[in-house]
Amino acid sequence: MQPSYNNRTTLPASATSRGDKWYCTVLLSDSLGAKDDEPVKSPEVTVLNQKPLVKIVSVSGNTGNITLVYNLTDQDGDRCNLRVWYRFGSGEKRVATVKEATEGKNVITNVAPGEGLQLTWLSREDVPSGYGEYALGIIPNDGLDDGTEDSSQRFRLDNNDAPIAKDVSIFPKAPFSSDNLRADYKFEDPNNGDTESGSRIRWYRNKVEQTNYRDKKRGPIKCDKT
Ligand SMILES: [Ca+2]
Ligand SMILES: [Ca+2]
Predict the structure, then answer these.
(1) Residue 7 domain-assigned?
(2) Residue 100 C-alpha to ligand 1 middle, in angstroms?
């Protein structure tokens, strides 16, 4: 029994918590003093869970570590687990590796509701050469229910590093005028898996560029034998 609410017909919301089971009893009497023999009991009601809600405030950064600022609300004051995802273009949601994760790669556990909270997406872990329009999202769960998720505006990500031309040389190394010349080099890209596309090659004869051999791996045939 909660005696401080005796004889009141209204119980303030501040007195209830999620999961509480409440009932009241009524013992009626009239102005002449006649009263019921026994108090009458109401059916029991359970105070329901209010689902949490996330609102993403901002995203900053466009390469490597991306900072997300968000607000987390739960009217019951429940601490929440947050699952973080990313999306490339209009593709499907994928698990986002976050620095603050305490469970797996993308779950931050036991977060108290508040404003201006931050998390960091380690984007290079998930998309080492990611390039294009991305979005991030958070799904809150208060231990009972998934709440209302939010996703960020799309933002531009550029994790792509330029490739490096290694061991650039001409073959043969000691050519005669009857030899075709060939440009030799190795394509190395810091992002594993990137392939060569659109490389530019220039040939110089006595320091003057020979534009008709642009982007050709084979250089001039100095002496045409035909
Ligand atoms: Ca709740
Ligand atoms: Ca690259």
Answers:
(1) yes
(2) 22
Return the pLDDT at 43: 97
Q: What is the mean pLDDT of residues 4-31?
A: 92
Residue 159 C-alpha to ligand 2 middle, in angstroms? 8
Q: Which domain holds residue 176?
A: 164-213
pLDDT for residue 194: 85
- What pLDDT, on the 0 to 100 scale, is given for residue 216? 85
Cα–ligand 2 centroid distance for 157 (angstroms): 13
Cα distances from 165 to residues 73, 93, 168, 184, in angstroms, run 52, 36, 7, 10
In a domain, 110, yes or no: yes
| Residue at a domain's end among 33, 48, 63 | 48
For residues 184-203, give the mean pLDDT.
89
Q: What is the mean pLDDT of residues 144-149?
A: 95
What is the CA(52)–ligand 1 centre distance, in A?
A: 6
Closest by alpha carbon to 170, among 225, 217, 221?
217
Whether the pLDDT of residue 224 is over 60: the answer is: no
Answer yes or no: is 23 within a domain: yes
Do residues 62 and 102 both lie within one domain?
A: yes
Residue pointed to by tokens 């209009």: 90
The total number of structural domains in the chain stands at 3
DSSP helix/strand/coil, 4: helix
- Residues 35, 91: one domain? no
